[in-house]
Amino acid sequence: MRIVRFSIDGNVAFGAVEGGPPPASGGGTPTAAGEGTPPGSDGLVVDIMKGVPFGDFELSGTKIPLDKVRLLPPVLPNKVVAIGRNYAAHAAELGNEVPDAPWAFFKPSTSVIGPGDPIVYPSFSQEVHHEAELAVVISRLCRDVPRDRVKDVILGFTCANDVTARDTQRAEKQWARAKGFDSSCPLGPWIETSLDLDAAGDLAITATVNGELRQAGRTRQMLNSIEDLIVNITEAMTLLPGDVLLTGTPAGVGPLLPGDEVAVTIEGIGTLTNKVISRG
After folding, report:
1. pLDDT exceeds 80 at position 126
2. 131-144: per-residue pLDDT in tens?
3. Which residue among 19, 89, 98, 186 has the highest number of C-beta atoms inside a 10 angstrom radius?
4. Using an 8 Å Cβ cutoff, are 26 and 213 in contact?
5. What residue stretches are annotated with the Fumarylacetoacetase-like C-terminal domain (predicted)?
6. Which of 49, 71, 93 marks a domain boundary?
7. Are residues 212 and 116 in the same domain?
8. Do 44 and 146 belong to one domain?
9. Which of 44, 24, 22 is nearest to 33 (CA)?
């Protein structure tokens, strides 16, 4: 199931996307009719959900063309827990050592935006980078999750862009402003629930800027697996339904400028596209 969160006529709801496989690649420009609609969405419909995907729900049977709704962030997390330097080649390209254990940091809920929403270039930075990442959406409250139960706490997977003010990250040493500014965490276009952990552990992941390929890797290159990360994080903190885990980025990160369009594509999930704008 592909779960979306959307608005139409001022109302917000969850729904299930029906009508075809998720797009495998490409960027695309959101249309006026369906803001944030991913490429390859012609003919897709949203079956409106009664309830929320973190509890009991059913599909209403009321269906709306996907290109007639505005896609929102597929989830509004209490917290986004992100992992740094989880791909060796990415650590190397920035001249960093690979950490001995998962290196976690937070992005606030106010950093989250959805497909088609603008990434607002922060006033305090002159070097903003894209970072394409696989995101894991948590399904239920959990703490001290054993490895063999990790699958039970995952609702599904989505695309993420860990947008980073790289100059600020270098200058300030800690990452709160560099990675936590407003609009620095695009998520979407939907939550894909049909992938199991084995499949999620070997997906192609790319980022393009204005159609030019910048990043290309596979999730099997992660130094710490999804299981490793959830076990490690829940040793320290409780994860809540809708919380999001960002699993790190492959090599190829690079600059974004106002006017650029950046697209993150993950095999079996889809494409998340956002434009960069200047802060007004």
Report:
1. yes
2. 999 999 999 999 99
3. 186
4. no
5. 79-276
6. 71
7. yes
8. no
9. 44
pLDDT at 270 exceeding the cut of 60:
yes
The answer to whether the beta carbons of residues 48 and 59 sit under 8 Å apart is yes
The dihedral sign for the CA sequence 245, 73, 182, 210:
positive
Q: Same domain, yes or no, for 191 and 261? A: yes
The number of beta carbons lying within 10 Å of the beta carbon of residue 263 is: 27
Relative to beta strand 270-278, strand 119-121 is: parallel
The secondary element (H helix, E strand) that includes residue 180 is: helix 176-180
For the chain, how many structural domains are there in total? Answer: 2
The CATH number that applies at residue 193 is: 3.90.850.10
Q: Are residues 144 and 64 in the same domain?
A: no
Query: How many helices and strands (H and E) does the chain possess?
Result: 5, 20
- Give Cα 259 to chain centroid, integer Å: 21
CA angle 185, 39, 119 (to 5 degrees): 25
Shared-domain flag, residues 189 and 62: no
Identify the CA nearest to 63 among candidates 49, 42, 45: 45
Residues 35 and 92 in one domain: no
The set of residues, in sequence order, having a beta carbon less than 8 Å from that of 11 and lying 6+ positions away, is none
The domain in which residue 18 lies consists of 2-71
Per-residue pLDDT tens for 55-99? 999 999 999 999 999 999 999 999 999 999 999 999 899 998 888
Q: Which two three-digit tokens encode residue 195?
A: 């992938």
Domain finish residue from 42, 71, 100:
71
- Look at the chain and count its residues: 280
In the chain, what's the furthest Cα-to-Cα distance? 53
Q: What is the mean pLDDT of residues 267-277?
A: 98
> Both ends of the chain: CA-CA distance in Å?
38
What is the per-residue pLDDT for 39?
Answer: 74
